[in-house]
User: Fold this.
Amino acid sequence: MKITTKQFLSVLALTAGVSSASFAQTIFFNNGALVFTASAAIVQVNGGFQNDGAAGTTPVFENNGTMTIANSGTPGSVFLTNGSTLQGDGTIFVEQDWTNDATFTADNSTVDFNGDLQQFITSTTGTVTTFNNLTLSGAGATTADRKKTLQLVDARVGTSGILTINDRELETQTQTMFIDNPAVGAVTNSTAFGAEGFVSSSFGGTLSRATNSTSVYSFPTGSSVGTLRYREVKLTPASAAANIFTGRLGNNTATTDGFDVLQIDTTMCKVTALFYHQITRTAGVDNADIDIFYNLATDGPWDGLAKWNSPTAALWNNMGTVTVTAGAYNDNKKLAWSDFSNSPYILSRAKLADPVFACADVCINSTGNIFTATGGTNYVWSTPAGTTITSGNGTGTITVDWGATGGPIIVIDTNSVGCYSDPVSCTVNVISPPTAAFDTASVGFDYTFTDLSTGGATTWLWTFGDGGSSTMQNPTYQYTSNGPQTVCLVAGNGNGCIDSVCYTINVDVIEFINIPNVFSPNGDGNNDQWYVNSSGLKEFRVEIYNRWGTKVFETEAATIKWDGRTTAGVELSDGTYFYILTAVSITNKDYSTKGFINLIRN
Assistant:
């Protein structure tokens, strides 16, 4: 029903002595009257409320008590129209929508949007409502029913007011919710994990906060579009000067809004494709700490922050070192940030450090070549065509069978969250080995082996078939038994490339000893030495005595030759001398004997 000025004043007289006035299923329509309710008054409107200005009037409705505008249908809304004014220090509970096409003077009032269905704050004339205390409440459980939505117009909380979000969603769409009160506590919300209240904004909308301290200011940003997310931002200004900052959650891949998540600077491996934030400083000059929160379980691990378009245009730029703190929500904090020239910010991960890796040349058609990288944890290797990684792929050390041609080996370090290093590569050259060859000659059991290898051999390994070996280039080897022996030479170069060749020789030597009994050391070149000819002996010792039994000479040389002098080099006279020979062959046959030698000089 409509209440005229005269009728409404009558109602006021009625309510002056009581605490409430009730109207069933109606529109409380003030048609230009001056209305006042005292601080103790309770006004219950079971329907809607419209404050209207009749022609030639100055309508003011001043509420200093508690006014409840409630109905579950289309009514339950507030309409301020035709030059009217709604003012006062009281509380207004609004179940449905708020349409302000006139004047709302907030004074010290509280407006509580307590409906259980989506509610709208709007105007058909573009009028921005400045609230004192704005409270969002209600019991609506669905995503839509939790929303209190700015439609077509911005809204403000005044310089002394508080925005109380509780567990509701303040949806600004493309509009801005301004918080003019610079107090840290001017915005509050429920922070129960998974049931937080938040401010959501479409692209172009935002939450704006005035600041005047170095305290931490919360921007409880979130979104119910698509995946429900609460991702708070906290800003800490560098000084107590006046600043204004804004924050918004873009609850979609930033690419959708023109900020391509694949365009990143070379220090990063990736940025999140789930969401991003827009943060601006619209007034003031102060730096600020930027602290962005995320859910590790659903968003993944991140170790950095990136900013779009600055300093390099059209890509995400690494913001440098951040502090990462774990909690119900992890947060990445960048201290003393100064560049607010562009608004998009995003979680990032740094590119992994390059592995330390170097190549060694390999031998043609070789197996078991080992290559090792350090500095990472999980490696991806690539080798050229004609090679096979036989073990170790994914680890720091691989074993490769190589073919006939060289080429690059490439290694990248990766981790479990999809980050990677730059590829590190080096070129492997294929080295041909020398060609092994040798010849052999023998004197009795003594065999001389001559290296005939070509192609730059620098190392030699000989095996003689009976367990003996040598690393000399041209060794001499004494066998201890007759029979066939397989002799092998492994010839190598400085790169470790080898070739081998084997021959079988037949060791077949007759053991003997021939002891002369006369010699003439007179210098005529004929029979000047007493020479014991032998073959196949391994032990050889002789002692020579004069006729008085004095030892004049002894030796253990493998070849015995006596020139008729003492061990000290003194010439001995003609005569008969006695010798004792100790001799054992390689086959352990004893050829020891005794006898006489005739020394004749003339």
